[in-house]
Model the fold of this input.
Amino acid sequence: MDQTDDASKWEIARLIPVSGIRNAEEQERRATSALLAVLHSVSEFGAAFTKPFGAPKGQLDTFIETPFELADERKVRPDGLIRVSRGKKEWIALVEVKTKTNELEKDQIEDYLDLAKEQGYNCVITISNQIAKIPGEHPVEVNKTKTRKVSLHHLSWSRVLTEAMLQKNLRGVADPDQAWILDELIRYMQHPNAGAVDFCDMGEEWVGVRDAVKDGTLRPTDKKAVEVAGKWEELVSFAALRLGRNIKADVQEVLSSKERNNISIRIGNIVDAMVKRGVMPGEIRIPNTVGDVSFVADLRARQIVASIKIQAPATGRHTTKINWLLRQLKSSSGDVRIDCWGVRSRTSMSDLLKNVRQKQSLLIPVDNRERGSLKVSISKPMGLKRSAGKKSFIDSVLNTTDQFYGDVVEHLKGWQPPAPKLSVEPTPMEAPVDEVQAVENVGGEKTENGETV
Done:
């Protein structure tokens, strides 16, 4: 009997199974247990996970559903607890977990902050599918007095998955068995049953604000605009995470110091750009690339535009400089656009790559000015739907970002000036042997038989 067909239908035994999850409570319990168990088992991942929260290197132990009683006799049960021991010192964090669309609750978080303060613990870590608008910020606003002695941190499941993938593929895991365990956690988090979903909704106000921007009727004081701006900021953060997972690199959103320290400044800047220019801007930084990648959602033109700037070569003729860029984009789509600015010029020469390939002079600056900088960009139709999926706004942003990186960014290298040439002095010509002997004989002494010594 041939059992090949039967074997292809059999379910592979998994360390962390996704089958049998019946409700949200069980889903959260299994996700918590899986994550904390792997933090304990895979030493490199455990250290990388806890280090940003202030944990020292040491023995890492994890526990789930730890029961406590507050000073006022209220009973609380955090989803998990992480303890790192080093000598006589201990670092302890309480963990609260939500999956799918379940959101963190303010009262519950504040209870855990009170508990951590009473017990002398270091921090509270929350994990959910909510994405903080600014890295380091918490998506839930709690009483600030409760975080004076106990720090509060948040991770989205997207961030947890990204960190796990970076640890496995970029930083590495020395022990093969531990690497397999981490791979099982990654597989589990990527399964729909795990409840670790990606950013998938622009919010209820998306359609109204989108159309108001297009019609030019959006006002800076519109609270709906603030909500959509916040969603856009979450999407930019998620786009960086997602691209980082795909290319196995630590991709980060680019923010000014003021924006990073104050979320309201960042949101205000997005709203201002929507009202004045009809766009929502974003920027990400990818390691070892020629520059930061900017992408803009143009709500009036209904386009998503991704771009990167690159400094033009400082030497060579205009056509030589253009060909330097064209060689790097030899496999890129002809619909890629190139803009060229002359030194001290406010306007650029611009054309599609397919046209420039045929006629490089299209990018020569006005008045034959020296070329200063180049910008390479692509434009794609903007999806209109609020939820993730076909023809959605979210997917149009993510797909444009990924396509631009693969089609353009990964091929670009910055101009490197040629190494200075070594200046070699000509070697003096050697005199004939007889001349050398004659010189050596000058001033010599004569012997008795008349020979010079």
User: Anything to note?
Assistant: Residues 356 and 362 are 6 Å apart (CA to CA). Residues 206-411 form one domain.
